[in-house]
Amino acid sequence: MVVLFVVIAAACVCIIVIGTAFGFRKKSDPGILPLYQDWSSCCSSSCCCRETTETDKQNNLLVTQSSQEFFIPKEKVKVQPPSRTHSSTCPPSPTGSNSGSDSEQGSISSESTNGLFESEIGAVKPDLYAKSNDTLVLQHEKQGKVKKLGKLHFKLKFDFDKSDLNVNVIQADSLPKMDFGGSSDPYVKVFLIPDEDRKLRQTSVQRRTLNPTFNEIFKFPTTYDELQNKTLFFTVYDFDKFSRHDVIGEVKVVLREIDVSREVDVWSDLQPCTVKQAELGDLLFSLSYLPTAERLTVVVMKARNLKAMDINGSSDPYVKVSLLQNGKRLKKKKTAVRKNNRNPVWNEALVFNIPTESLKHMSLEVTVVDYDLLGHSEIIGKCDIGPLCDGTGREHWHDMLHAQRKPTAMWHTLHD
What we know:
By secondary structure, the chain is of the alpha+beta class. It has helices at about 1-30, 35-45, 55-65, 100-105, 225, 390-400, and strands at about 70, 75-80, 110-115, 115-120, 120-125, 135-140, 150-160, 165-175, 185-195, 200, 215-220, 230-240, 245-255, 265-270, 280-290, 295-305, 315-325, 330-335, 345-355, 360-370, 380-385, 410-415. The strands form 6 sheets. Strands 6-14-7-8-11 form a 5-stranded mixed β-sheet, with no helix packed on it. Strands 10-9-12-13 form a 4-stranded antiparallel β-sheet, with no helix packed on it. A hairpin with a 2-residue loop joins strand 1 (about 70) and strand 2.
């Protein structure tokens, strides 16, 4: 009995060991799984039995269109399949088609056809816009044989921010010979008529040339509406140190006939002067500065052709010289009165003490006055001398600084 029990127990242990080993093999090796498990998992889903929808076909189409490879010598590039071209800058919709709003948004083309830039918002025509560097040539009718007086080049532009008319006198060309040496010493005076400030605007003198270059800008404070009733005059003179300045010619510009809201480049022939400016006379005086003594000496010599201020057709002139620092009057001195004389001679020296370091801030105002015993003395005319003045006033001051200790004399045309 004992032997039989041991045999039966051993057989049971062997069966258990063999069964356990077979179970682990089933779990670790999927190759031996029953095929019916795959078929049962597949049949549990009903999607394989229904027909594929249209959306699934499109999705499957996007998946199946994989990247293609194109081989170029020494280079391998992946290229995606060609896609649809969209006329809108908006990205395509997920379904691959454009919506109604996308079709309405057209792209603007930069292609040019016959000089016009076409787009769906209209055509741009550059020819309609005026160019800022246009040149205007003022032509005048010639009556008979007229002597050629040369040409004047200038630019005009109205500054709306500062309410100024900017006049740029650039150059003159082919001026006539006015001096014995076969040349001229030209300068230009600019007048705006009528003008309220009455300030003299004059270029510097260009020595011994018939084709001078000025490049000087003058400003006339006024409004744009007032310009429509004003006329601009350019008068070209030949400077003469010891005699009367000769008029070469003039240019007349009626401002209502020119659009100065933008810069206008103008060339014009010089014409003989038709309207003679009111002559107030000329004054001759000399300047000298002695640095060691810090002394400025003004010698008033004489005047000529002074304007008649009295009823009897004469004048009683004297000269008043004022010393100014940055426009502020510091001192003034005057000559004696010359009775009933429109061409007086004084030869009087007026002396001012000026430190050398302050000389660059100084200027002189020389005024010719008609003396009246009973009433108020009237100003005949004046001229300004200094480093910031225009024309002969600035030139005379510079000549004095370059020729220190030596008097330099110059004629000055009086203005009101």
